[in-house]
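Board work, copied verbatim: GMP synthase [glutamine-hydrolyzing]
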Amino acid sequence: MVETIVILDFGSPYSPLIARRVRESQVYAELLSWDTPEKAVMALNPKGFILSGNLRSALEPGAPALPGYAIQSRRPILGIGSGMSALVLALGGKVTFTATPKYDLHQLSILRSSRILQTGDDPQVWMSCADRVDAVPEGWQILASAADCPIAALGDGERAYYGLQFHPELEFTPAGGQIIARFVRDVCQCSGDWTVQAIIDHAIRQVRSQVGDARVLSTVSGGVDSSVATALVGRAVGDQLSAVYVDTGLMRKDETQWVRKAFQDRLGANLHCVDAAETFFSNLQGITDPEAKRRVIGETFIRVFEATTHNLGDLRFLVQGTIYPDVIESRNLQQGDARPIKTHHNVGGLPEAMDFELVEPLQNLFKDEVRLVGEALGLPSELVWRQPFPGPGLAVRCLGEVTPGRVEKLRQADAIFTEELSQAGLLSHQEGGISQAFSVLLPLKTVGVKDGQRTYDELIALRAVTTTDFMTADWAHFPGDLLTRVSKRITSEVAGVNRVVYDITGKPPGTIEWE
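↓ predict structure ↓
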């Protein structure tokens, strides 16, 4: 069993980022609800605990509390935000509610060196002050302060208990990764055995245990996640795996030819291609609601796969490239404040009545871990570092009704945007590249002028972000001449489009995809 840090999730929407930061230190992190039974938690033999925090005050009725077994275990504990408040309360300190909670950037002033904070660092941090510590527990020391927050960090070095009133997991706290690394490596004494090879070995064992000698069907979309999932399951079960690529009519330009070449020529995979574009467009006719689109696409996918299996023999399992951010964005923590943002195509759009059991070997991995696994499995770099592409394809980027004509407009615009970014050396697999970029077709028309004639056509929105984890993201700051060039090409080369806009919304408050 690998060394494990247990993150007790108090309901923060950023709890998964703590797990990612821990894993950056090559230490496995398991994210569990704060009220998970003691037996299940301690079965992991955790080297330490991290309390994730919450958008609520720790003093509110029914707020998450620190389980008694965490203290009794004598393991190191790090409390973040209201997780710090819960830790202080459990040990006899005093906490009061802040009438005006603060969630913004502050300069940290480190008052005393410790195993997680060093004097002289004084980093910029993202504060989260719903509560205020007024009296520290016996044996604790104040480690850092910030404006309007006299106790921004505190700790009991002897018992290895620490509390932070800021969020080290967020990119807004540049030194946050180092702080978490100090906790898991120096305080918890983890050796760092969560390597890429360990991830692969663990996934292979799980797949073999689940599948046995049954045959498996994998759905290949040409995206990073489905490709790595297919390669990983193939490594685990070999010839038991059959891969199917469905041309939905909702794919990127030249996608079908690219997938055939990548999987058949480069990987030698047993790939079955199915042309189902007519079926998908027929089923999507008249549907504009994004959640309804996802359900229809999920239903159609499964029905197409089920029909395909009649020619492939007895197939019991279905591989999906679900990754951790997919799961987090779709779940509803009953005990916390992390509410579902949207139903993800890999976790919420599948019909209940289907003839497959799901195999999801990547569901606990972040995107950067998925790419590293893909490289270690020997997948082509151009496949591993492709731009992320949603399972429902262009349907979730074609706002409003999905028709062949509207999708073709979007496909052409998206190809132009991608081509210009590639020529400028700005794609994610290139040094300094962005993480994701795409076009969105909006269901509204604007007045324009083309060739001296009045036009009344649809508009394209461009979306590009930089991120390391896809849980938070910043919009990509492109030079104006690049955006001008893209706009001129789209409005002149794509029929039925007369306006281009650029989305400058971060995540949060927006999500990366529009639907």
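Residues 196-385 form a domain with the Rossmann fold fold (CATH 3.40.50.620).
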